[in-house]
Amino acid sequence: MKKLVLFLTIMFMTMSYGQEIKQIPLINVNGEGKVKVAPDQVCISATVETKGNNAKDVKKQNDEKMDAVLKFIKKMNVPTTDFKTKQVALNPQYDYEKKKTSYNATQTVEIVLKDLNKYDELMEGLVQQGINRIDNVSFESSKLAQYQSEARKIAMKDAKVKAEEYVSVLGQKVGKAFTISDNSQVYHPRPMYAAMKTEMMDASGASNQTLAIGEIEITANVSVSFVLD
Questions:
Q1: Which residue in 32, 49, 135, 228 has a CA-CA distance of 20 to 30 Å to 153?
Q2: What is the CA radius of gyration of the chain?
Q3: Range 23-38+143-228 has CATH code 3.40.710.10
C-alpha cells in the first residue's frame, strides 16, 4: 500500500512538473556593429636600458638618462598627469663561461600624448635623451566609451534586422529579446617605428612621413534570442 501511494505521488509530481514547462518559440541570431574613428591621442611606452659590470655605476647612469628624459617630456609641455614611471629594475646577469656578473638596469616611462602634432618631435627627443627601447606605441581615442556604446547599438539593430528577415517568410513576427550576450573588442593600430625615426628627408628636402596612424575600429558582437509572436 505504501509503495502504491509513493508511486502515485511521484507520478503526480512528474505530471505537474511537465505541465509547468512551457516551450517558448525562439530565434537565435548574431549581430555585429563597427565604428571607425581617427585617434586623438597616443600612448607611448619607452625604456632606458643600461648595462655594465658595476651595479652602482649602472644604476647611476640609468637614473641620469631617465632624469634627462623626464625633463624633456616636461619641456614638451606634457601635463604631469599624462606621464609616469611604469617600471624600475636592476638585475644581475651571470656569465657562466666568463664567470663574471654584469648588471642590467631598466626604467620604463609611459606617456599619453594628446597633441598628435607633437608626436614626431617627442619621439625623436626621447631617443636623443637616452631612450633606447620603444616598447609600445598605441593610438587611441579619448572617447572610447562613447564609440563602444554606438557599436553595441548598431550590433543590436543588426541582430533584430536579421531575425526579422528570417521569420518574415514564415509569417511570424519578432517579439521581445529573451537573452543577450555581448562581446566587444577594440583594435588599436600599432605602427612600425623604423630606426626610431618618424620621418626622413628626401633629396629635395621635403619631409616624407613614414608613419600611418590609421583608424581605430571598435567592434561589438552580440548574440540575441528573440521570442517569436
A1: 228
A2: 30
A3: no
Cα 1 to Cα 4, 11, 14, 182, 197: the distances in Å are: 5, 15, 20, 56, 93
Q: For residue 178, what is the enclosing H or E element?
A: strand 174-187
Element (H, E) at 158: helix 144-168
Q: Residues near 44 by Cβ (< 8 Å), separated by ≥ 6?
A: 110, 111, 112, 113, 122, 123, 126, 134, 136, 137
pLDDT tens string 40-98:
999 999 999 999 999 999 999 999 999 999 999 999 999 999 999 999 999 999 989 88
| DSSP reduced 3-state for 149 | helix
| Of the candidates 128, 137, 116, 123, the residue with the CA atom closest to the CA atom of residue 45 | 137
Whether 151 contacts 34, CB under 8 Å: yes
CATH 3.30.70.2970 correct for 41-140? yes
What are the residue ranges spanned by the domains of the chain? 23-38+143-228, 41-140
Residue 196 falls in which region: left (phi positive, over 0), alpha (psi -120 to 50) or beta: left
- What are the φ and ψ backbone dihedral angles of 188, each rounded to 5 degrees? -110, 115
> Closest by alpha carbon to 207, among 129, 120, 126, 118?
120
